[in-house]
Structure formats: structure tokens, C-alpha cells
Predict the 3D structure of the following.
Amino acid sequence: MIKVGVMGATGYTGVEMVRVLLGHPKIEITFVTSEKNAGASFSAVFPAFQGIFDQTLISSEQASLHSSASVVFLCLPHHSSMKAAAEWRQKAVKVIDLSADFRLKSAQEYEEWYGKHEFPELLSQAVYGLPELYREKIKNADLVANPGCYPTSAALALAPLIQKKLVHLESIIVDSKSGVSGAGRSAEVANLFSEVNEGFKAYKVASHRHTPEIEQTLSDLAGEKVRITFTPHLVPMDRGIFTTVYATPTQKIKTSELTQAFQEFYQGEKFIRIESMGRYPNTREVRATNFCDLACVVDERAGRIIVLSVIDNLTKGAAGQALQNFNLMMGLEETMGLKLLPHVP
Amino acid sequence: MIKVGVMGATGYTGVEMVRVLLGHPKIEITFVTSEKNAGASFSAVFPAFQGIFDQTLISSEQASLHSSASVVFLCLPHHSSMKAAAEWRQKAVKVIDLSADFRLKSAQEYEEWYGKHEFPELLSQAVYGLPELYREKIKNADLVANPGCYPTSAALALAPLIQKKLVHLESIIVDSKSGVSGAGRSAEVANLFSEVNEGFKAYKVASHRHTPEIEQTLSDLAGEKVRITFTPHLVPMDRGIFTTVYATPTQKIKTSELTQAFQEFYQGEKFIRIESMGRYPNTREVRATNFCDLACVVDERAGRIIVLSVIDNLTKGAAGQALQNFNLMMGLEETMGLKLLPHVP
Amino acid sequence: MIKVGVMGATGYTGVEMVRVLLGHPKIEITFVTSEKNAGASFSAVFPAFQGIFDQTLISSEQASLHSSASVVFLCLPHHSSMKAAAEWRQKAVKVIDLSADFRLKSAQEYEEWYGKHEFPELLSQAVYGLPELYREKIKNADLVANPGCYPTSAALALAPLIQKKLVHLESIIVDSKSGVSGAGRSAEVANLFSEVNEGFKAYKVASHRHTPEIEQTLSDLAGEKVRITFTPHLVPMDRGIFTTVYATPTQKIKTSELTQAFQEFYQGEKFIRIESMGRYPNTREVRATNFCDLACVVDERAGRIIVLSVIDNLTKGAAGQALQNFNLMMGLEETMGLKLLPHVP
Amino acid sequence: MIKVGVMGATGYTGVEMVRVLLGHPKIEITFVTSEKNAGASFSAVFPAFQGIFDQTLISSEQASLHSSASVVFLCLPHHSSMKAAAEWRQKAVKVIDLSADFRLKSAQEYEEWYGKHEFPELLSQAVYGLPELYREKIKNADLVANPGCYPTSAALALAPLIQKKLVHLESIIVDSKSGVSGAGRSAEVANLFSEVNEGFKAYKVASHRHTPEIEQTLSDLAGEKVRITFTPHLVPMDRGIFTTVYATPTQKIKTSELTQAFQEFYQGEKFIRIESMGRYPNTREVRATNFCDLACVVDERAGRIIVLSVIDNLTKGAAGQALQNFNLMMGLEETMGLKLLPHVP
């Protein structure tokens, strides 16, 4: 059994991390941390886990004294995360960081969007953990920067278009819609049930921190700087991201051809499902699983390519992808512990 | 008191029509029709109205014998609606048609999207009932084609951009998100609670029937044919449409300037609210009211204009706008019966 | 116009109070207070009210300097409310208190459930504002204790049973289910969307503070001490209370007879609707209105009476009832400003 | 591998049956039936299963020709189910029937509530599949009548009270609240999203067909006829049943003692979790798992026992319990395939 720890286990990303780890046949969770709930059991905070996972939550300080974990998953806020990562790396423990702290390659760009980076020297060691694009690098990584939820949905929708030079780079628009769990588990009036329910809104229009992360991946694929327009919206539901991507085609193309191009690009990928022509995805259909479902449409009337992309923000958009990265880093079967069965409804 | 009738009173548009009519001080409802529920009282179908509006529903055939209504509101499916409109017009009764039957000027375009039009001669008499753009024509109309919900939200977001030539016409994308009441009140598995709840999906991507209606209004404003990309999505909530419009600016412009252009364009409009810079609308904030709230953002990094537009699909997107048109046609104060107070939450 | 003030206008009860006051033809709101948002406009906190009610929120201190209000509505937390009430009464301003501070007649009982009462001398002056039971007293009151939401739904369901001696007093069970707005508008993890949505729970079982309030009304009607079992539950929806009352009948009775007894008891009441036999109420059907809908069932197999009662917790359960009390105190038509039209859906 | 078939695989019970079967290590699904969707793949009906379970749906007629299944799960409507059961039993195939057809021991009682029973001779062979009460009988059964969802939640809450003679039998009230999936997957206006959302209602008050089923189990435990009052309600959420049970104690008892009595009664049960004193369950906490969570409260003021019981109506209330019965019938570990991990939120 491989021993792992989870820091920040009582946020929504943390509890999802615990869920997928518990389903993995080769993993033993040696510690789970929470500053606020240290001393309580995990199942006291999340009673759904009573009798399933009753381990006592410890503080991060106590965790740092643990020497037995081989891999640590960081489900901490940015800035806290980079400090923890540096500490664990010093002890030669592998780190999968689910925060934003190691996603941007440039310390300067990080500073623009998140504030000063205190461990810029670690940035070059970090590998961006999107397996469908960077599988080989991840296999050899000791520090993985697990992608953001929006960037995962957007990059998987756009990668085939860019790699195959099917769209004009300056024409890309990413219109995303997220469930409320993406806003986290801290007490804020704006996220109360009676504030969110029965409403739909946009937020951080053209100014969301995931913008540079999406652009970094696209630029890497394009070999040149790509700038996009990104608008996130909030949907009154718990889980799921739906991303609608728009771009102008570089050549005449049909929906069937585009669909085929996607099927080729993602051939053999276990967590990517390309919808057949005329079928569109629904966030419900990937809920609590590690799938990303994609559909392609060419709007021939208006001359535009549309790609629809859905993931569960907490699974493929966070903890599931982290476990996928773990499997790659450990040389295990990539799908181990991730054949998650969906429930309907 | 002005006597009016409502045909198709037991769909969601119909019941909303009744709600707003009951709040109008100069209107008396003389009949409400329903083929399926004829003989039952309106409040037997919608018990919320017990003691408020208990009138007996009659069949359309019975209604056609009524001679006392001066204006009839048609909340019927398309095709049924055109027949009813023709009949009422023959009796010189004014008609406000909430279906799609008289929205498109061209019988040929109607045929492409909806099937054959049986009363093409009436198309030229019909006035498109978007008061903010066609107020003067509506005042003299006998047959008003009440706009669709998506087209209302899109046209109001785009009109200032096009009239002021701020955007390239071929760059327009309309990404809309609608509450479930937009799907109507007929029994379909796809619209069951447990199918829709906790999910988000797109439908009729680049092929929705509201596309030509949006384009017709934009083309009219532009003085040339405009083609757009339109993607509708379904939000797990009862009411509301959120439309995110994207376009490429023809000149450098700032968010503040764009916001000011909108304020000027809609100066004096009672049902349009322009959000101040940095504030974005929410469908909840217009629920059950006749407002359209708009916000402007310029994405200077990517060179793009974004306009956010929210309405209640059943009020400003249907029955509220119909009553606004009624007021104009009757020479009444435009806001009469429409100063609807919002509830929070 | 009668000048009124609202203290605590930015909670859910406060904003609902403002909504119903704005619809009243003889009321002018002279001030609205909020400690946290003083200086901001009401519509900055609740953007749904932009252009409708943009008055600046003031602090309670500033409000106390106002001399023009004839009536003040207190939408404050308990304890804060009693102080404000005492102050306004000293200035001979009439007070309608929506908190729990003046509902219990006994200072000792108040202390058991809420803590020490600082103005016990005011308790005897306060009139319990349930118009259907205490209409005449309310007409002459200067200080009205507006009932709690659960107590309103329970008392209206039980009053006919007790007054007509139809049930054994020791057999009464009140099983209530409330929408989330009843939990208030303060930032708490437990009330976040992703904590409440898609779940159903009980809370404060047999220990909720509304228990003595319900018992006080029932005891008053019975002429002897009544003790009940009361269980509140939380429903994932914004508004509404559904109360299911159980009791053992003192004599053989049929559903039709019980329904008739209720119709007689509530004869002439404008805000009580008795469902016909076999129809059961739904919280949706009273949403944002001042109605209480009631249905009676006799379970002849098991020998038990069941009464179903629904109200909107913020309207008949708070602000609507407060306005009804206002109308009575001012000698106005009881329904003035309260003929609220429901929307479907 | 044990070969099994599922009849009626495209209702909510059917798809949940498939989900739990797919997670069982010793089961192979040999057929899934659907009259309406025969010929289509299971994943065409439920796209969440694309790439996971793409088996073609067949008609019941085709299925009856299959000879390889050892056990068949019937997720059919009542009446259809009894015919299928009789057929499979004739071929010596074991049957787990999730309909109501074999739950009631008395053909006469069945007729009163459901209509005529065509195979009364099979009733005596059927074993009521509530493992916590009838485990030994289930082990030897060839035909298991899987309990209804409400009866499961009620019987597990009441069994300790009755077996230990803690309550007066004539005092029992069962107030249940169910998610919408309990209403099934057929197209009905009453179950549309916009009819159910944001509302709470009761239905079939004191007349629901699950009443005799609950009474049968309680009478069996009590050794005498027990009659209860049962009220089902509908909660705007997908999954979950919350049952609040009330009864009058036969002796003075404290919450701690009652809790201990429950712990003793359910000692060693893997799917029953007794909440510690002061903690109440939530349907979310058992979602998509096979748990039944129970909490005990004694209302000492009013002299009443309250038990709170939650299950997932589709899992412990249907398919999960069916699989638990399967394990018992096959001599397998009772929890095999049922250690389902919950997701939060």
C-alpha cells in the first residue's frame, strides 16, 4: 500500500480527494489535515462518512512531523499551498498540488493574478498535470500542479482545434458555467442557498484568474501567445462545469469532420468521451466521475466552430484528475480507482 | 374597463398573462380558453389563484362566439395561433400574438423554420412588438407579434452596439441560458424534475428557431443582412434568461464608454436598467418583473465586447411585454399594471 | 400617507417588509435601517430594487432621531428588538415587532427559551398579532408582537380543532417543514447552497423556541395548559412552510364534516383558504402571498385527524401578517396592499 | 461469475439496479429489458453510462428466451411484475421482485390496494426482503419481495420500538418525505421540473398503498394487528426519504436509553448507523449508498418518542437492498458490492 496524506481535507476539494482515495485499491491514507477541525474526526465534519472513514483530523503542523507518507495531496488555498509544497519537497515527499500555486510557469504572471510567489525556484520543477496533454512529463514528476477546473474543461475542448490548426487563434471565446461547489465551503452570504438558488449570474467577467492558465496551455500548443475571452457563470446546482467554446475556423469544415478530428485526437483516452453527432453533453452525465464529455458543432450559417465540454469540477476538475496524476507518477494503471459508476438521477 | 380574452391560458405563458392582466387597473378578462381543461375553473388548474381568479375555462370554439373582447392575447402553439389570429382580425378584434407565427416578415423564412404559413397576407400587417425599438409602429398596430424570449434578451443587448456601429457584424455570438419554464408545460420525460435538476446542458446548438428572429431585428438595425451564432442552454431553475453576447469592436473602446453608450441609447426607457460598471446582473433580480437588466464589459486584453442581458422569460420575454404592447396600442401609460414588485429571495 | 420606518431592512424579513410596504397605497417609507450597510442604498444590497426603491439605509441611531414615522416595523434579532421597541414606545410611536421579544406573555418563559427579558413591563401591553384569532385586540394595540412563522401555520391549523373541542389536547403533534429563507441571511456554512441543496433534515427536534409560542396560543384557546410535540425540518427551497398536524379525535368525525367545521370557523376570513375534500395544499400556491391554505383529512382506519397547513414564511409568516396588523391598527381595510398576485411557476 | 438479468432497466429503479450490479465483483449482467427502448443501447437512454455499460436493451419477450441468468431482478410496474415472476420461477430462476406484487402476504389485502392478484399461490413462497428483520428466511428464498422505499424507512425506525414493547401500538404516526425520483420516470405534468421545484406538498394522505405493507411488518413484530397513520410528502430533490416517526412511550424513558436500545437492536448491522445523541440525520448523508441512518429523541415535555430515519429511496429503498438480498440468497458476503462511497456535496 502506498501511504498518502491530504492537507486541507475539509473543503469540497478535500472531501472529494478523500472519496476517490478511499476507492483506490493501493492507497492508504495516513493523515488528513484541517486547521479549523483538528482533533475532530473526518466523519464528524462529513457525517456521510460515518463508519467509512473516521480518521482524526490533525493540524498541518502535526502532519509535517509525519514521515510515512510517500505522496501528499494539497487541497489548500493558494499561498498556503506553496509553503506546504516546499516543505514536503524538502523531505523528498512527492506533491500533487490542487491549488493554483504551481500552475503558471512565470512567477511574474503569478504575481499579476495571485500576488507574490515565494518559491519561484520550484516553478520549473512543477509539471502541469493534464494527463491527456502532458502524460509523459507527469510520469517523471515529483511536483504536479493539478489544473484548475475551468482550465481543464477549456483546454480539453480546445486542444484538438489548436494542435490541428483548425481555428484562428485570436477568435477564441470560452463561455463557462459552473456549479456552486466551485465557490468553496467558506461562510459567505453570496453563497447561501437563498442567494444562489433560482438565479443565474456571471462573475469576474474577463478578469478571472483561470484566464492566464487557459492561455498558457493554449499558447504551449500553438507555439505562440494566445489570448482568449473567458466568462465564468454560476449555475444553481452542486457540481459540474459546462464550457461552450467558440472560434472561427481556418477552413471550411463540417460537423462530422470535426467530430472525427476529435475522435482521432483523443483516441485511446480513457476519460474522454466524444459525443456522436447531434448529441450534446450534460453535466449530470459526468457527475462524480472522472470523464470529460465533448461535442463538436460547426455552425455553417455563421461560419463558426462550437465545442461543448463538460466535467465534474471536483472530480476531473480537481480530485479525480489528481488521482489520475498519482497513478501516472507511481507507474500504476491510469484508471485505477477511477472507474467511478455514475448514479441516475 | 377594456375587455380582453386570453387563448391558451393554461400554459406557463398563459398563466403569466393572466397574472399581469389581473394587476392592470383598466382591464377586465372576459374569457380564458383551454382545449384540455375547458369546463374547469382556472383556479382548479392553478390552485394558487383560488379566490383570486376562478373564471371557468372555455374552449376556443366557445371563445370565438364571444363578441365583447376588444383585444385577444394568443398564448397558443405556433400554427394554432395563426388561425386564431386570422379569425379575430376578421372580426376587427385586435390581436397580440405570443407565438412565433407573425414574428418573421418573410413567409419563406417562416416555412424554413416552422413549416408552411397559411396566412402570409397577414404578415405585412403584423408589427414586431419590441417597444424599445418599435414603439411608434406598435401604437398603431392591430396585430402585434410579441417577440420570443431569447430574441428579446439578445436584441436589447445588441441594439446599441449595432445602431452605433460599435461591432463587426459578422462577429456576433449569442450564448443564452434559460430557466426550465421556457420548455413549456407539456408532459415530456426530458423535462421531469429528476431529469433536469442538478444538470446543465445545451440544446438545438446553432439550429434554434429563434435564430432567424434575432437576425431579422439585427439586420433591420444594421441595414444589411446579419448572421449570428446562437446557442441556447438549460438552467435548473424555473424562470429567467441570461444572455451573454460577444462581438469584436470596430474601434478601441473602454467599459465606461460602452456603458455610457448604453445609458444614452436607453435613456428614458422604464424597463431597461443599465448596471453600473463592475456590477453584473442576475436572473433573480428581474424575476416576475418586466425589467431587462444589462451590463457592458470590454475585454481589453482580448479585444472583445461582452454584453450581459437578463430578463424573466415569462414576463419581459412574453406576457409582460405583451401587456406593455397592449398599453401602447390602447394609448395608456406604458408602465400601467407593470410596476411589478420583486420578491427576495 | 402614513409614514413608517423599517428597522433591520436587509435581512429576508426586512426586504419582504419593504416589498409589501411599497405595494400599499397609503404608506410612505421614511427610513430603512441596517447597521452593516448604513450609507449604502437599499437597492445596492438588493439590486432587484434598482429604480424601485433606492432609499439610503441608515443606522438605528440615526433612525431614532427621526420623528416623522407613525409606525415602526422591527425586523431585528430578538434582544435587539426589545430595546428598539421600548425606545419607540417612549416616543409614542406604534410598534410592530417581527422578532420573538413580545410574543410570550410570561417573562419567565421568555427567559427559559431566549434569555433574560429586559422590558417585562411591556409584555402586558403587547398584543399577539394573529388577526384571525385576536382581531379586536389588535385594532387597539400600540405594540403588536407579530407571530413566528411556524406558530402561524400551526395555530391556524389547530384553532378550529381546539375551539370546537374536536381533539384530545395531549395528542397534538406538529410536524413542520420550512424553506431555507427561514434560517436567515447571515453567513453560515450550514446554510450554503452546497450544504442545503439536495438534502432534507430535521433540526432542534422537540426543542425549538417556537414550541412555547404555539402552546401559548393553543392553551389560550383551550382554557388549559396544552403541551405539544413540535419537529421542524428544512426543505431545499427558498420560501414556504408546510405543517402537518396530527391529533386524536374526541368523537367520530368524517373528512367532510371536519372540512365544514373549518369552513365555518374561518367564514369571512380573507386570507384563509380551505381546500375542498381530496385536494391538498402546496407551498408554491401561497408563495409571496398572504394566504394560509388548509386541508382536513380524517384517517378513519387509524382514528386520527390530520390537518395540512401552508403559508409563505416571509409573508403570512412575517411581513405580510405585519402589514395585515398595521391595517387593523390604522383602521384601514384589512386586505389593503395585500392582494398579492401569485406567479406560476 | 453469477449471471443475472434486469427487467425494466430504464426506470429510475432499473438504472440504479444496473449501477449497483456493475459494482459487484461476482456478477455479470446478461440482459437488460425495456419495452419502449428495446433495440437501443442502455447508454443511449442513460448517456452517463457511455463506455461503461453499452449493452443493448431487449424486450421482455426476448429475455424470456434467455436461459443463462441464475437470478432476475424485476424493476417492473406491479401486475406486470407478477407475470414475469411466475414465468421465471417456472424455469427455476431465482427472482428478486422490486415491485409491490409479492410484498403483502394476503391476496385479499393486495386486491384492496392494488387490484386482483393473479398468482396468489406464489405469495406464500415469497420472502419479504428486509434483511435486518428477516435475514435467515431470505437466505433460503427463491422469490424475494423487495420492500418499498417508505416501508423500509418506517420499519427500520419502528422495529426496535415494537420488539422491545416501548410504545403503544395504536399511537404510531409515520410522517415521510420523499425525493422526486420516487414518483418514477414517466411523463406527467405533475412531475415536471417547473411544477415540483420550489414547492412542498403532501399526497395520498392516509391512503397510500405502502400503508398496509408497513402495518404488515409491524403487526408481525408485535404479534397483533397494528394500524398506523401514514402521510407521504414530496421534497424538491432527486433522491432520499426522510421519515419522522411518532409514538407514545409505554414507560418513562430518556433519549440516551432509547438510543442505546437502538444500538443494541442493530448491533452488528452493516447498513444501519445510529446517530449519537443530539445529531440528526440528513438524506444527503446516505445518498447513493445502502445506509439507513437513525436518530432517537424523547420529547419529555410532551411524553412522546420521535425516531428519525433516512435512506436513499433508490438504494436501500430499492436496488441496494435488492443486491443485499441477492448476496444473502447466494451465500456471499452481505456487503459485497455495497460499500458505496458517498460524494459531498
